[in-house]
Request: fold
Amino acid sequence: MFTARWWERRGLQIGLLCLAAGTTIVLRQTQGSLLMEAYEVITRPLQMLQTGPTKEERLRDARILELKTQIAELQFQNQKLKQIVSYTEKQAIKERPVVARVIGRSADNWWQQVTLNRGTSSGIQEGAIVKAEGGLVGLVDQVTANSSRVLLVSDLKSQIGVNVSQSGAKGVLKGDGSAEAVLEFYEKVPNAKVGDMIATSNYSQKFPAGVAIGKIKSLDLKRVPTSIARIELSPPLRSLDWVEIYPKPEIQQEKAEVNNTQAKSEEPAN
Reply:
């Protein structure tokens, strides 16, 4: 009787101790592999639901993103070329420009110059006019067989004769090393207002007249000795990509020919 009661009180405890001891022995012998296998079996469904993409899936997604980026870039460049072709087809045959792309630009002279992928092999000469959407970009000042360097209108050394399209008020546009320029008027009180458009004038010695450059952003009529205006340049000089190169103005060639003729006529006869 006493043994039966003692077993009823202690049997469960003894059974649990035996189970714990057996489990310990099994874990030592299997080094926990059995427990790990049981854990993996239990948690595998949860892992399948919660795990992220595999390495192969990540590589595939990265490749897809790369291809999408390339397609977007090609579409953008194609649209740019279509715009340029549409524009050049409207020009007279003798005025059709050479289309070129910007291939070089230094952070140290971002607003001073750019390098194009066309040179003498494409008929480019020093003094050629460079334009883009929005108007005048600059002047070719150095040429090799397959490249050209362009002095931008935003360069601090750039000076261009211009006029206000709405009124004809004239002045000199000077580069400011930024997307803006400074216009110094010839008149103390010019006939101009904010928003007026600016273009090259017939006073310009290097550029043809009537080429758009920008618009008046602000006026300072109290400036001494001459009034000035800040001009917001219309060509996308900040992010140039494709441009058009035009021959030197005929007026320059005509002047050069006249000067040569005069010089020859002044030479003493042998």
About this structure: Helices lie at 2-30, 33-50, 55-88, 250-265. Residues 16 and 22 are 10 Å apart (CA to CA). The first strand starts at residue 98 and ends at 104.
